[in-house]
Amino acid sequence: DESIKRYKQAGKSHAPSMYNIGSLIDTTSATKSRNEAIKYLTKSAELGHVHAQIKMAQIYLNGIGVKIDKK
Predict the structure, then answer these.
(1) d(CA 64, CA 34)
(2) Cα 27–30–33 angle (5° rounding)?
(3) Distance of CA 38 to the CA centre of its chain
(4) Residue 45 scores a pLDDT above 90
(5) 8 Å CB contact between 17 and 11
(6) Is pLDDT above 90 for 53?
(7) Which of 2, 27, 49, 62 is deepest in the core (most CB within 10 A)?
(8) Is 52 within 8 Å of 39 (Cβ atoms)?
(9) How confident is the model at residue 3 (pLDDT cuts 50, 70, 90)?
(10) Per-residue pLDDT at 34
């Protein structure tokens, strides 16, 4: 979709945009797209977005698309 493509370009280093993209992909796509969602959520978390950090903690805690990290 063209709107998502433009949003991705605009948000390459904008944490809220990266979080929104990752969340959108995560909630609207099949499992095979989960890796793309995790990529955007990880980038947003690394940029300091608190909601992305929480979402990534939940992903790793529950092993959603990643190996479970019990540490």
Answers:
(1) 9
(2) 85
(3) 4
(4) yes
(5) yes
(6) yes
(7) 49
(8) no
(9) low
(10) 82
7 with 20: CB under 8 angstroms? yes
3-state helix, strand, coil in the chain (%, to 5): 75, 0, 25
Is 7 buried (19+), middle (13-18) or exposed (0-12) by CB count in 10 A? middle
The Cα–Cα gap between 42 and 56 comes to 7
Asked if 45 and 56 count as a contact pair (C-beta separation under 8 A), the reply is yes
Q: How far from 31 is each of 21, 36, 47, 48, 56, CA to CA, in Å?
A: 16, 10, 25, 26, 16
User: Tokens representing 21?
Assistant: 């993209």
| pLDDT, tens digit (0-9, with 9 covering 90-100), for 12-42 | 778 888 888 888 887 766 666 788 888 889 9
- 11-45 in b/e form (b: 16+ CB < 10 A) is beebbebbbbbbbebbeeeeeeebeebbebbbbbb
SS3 18: helix
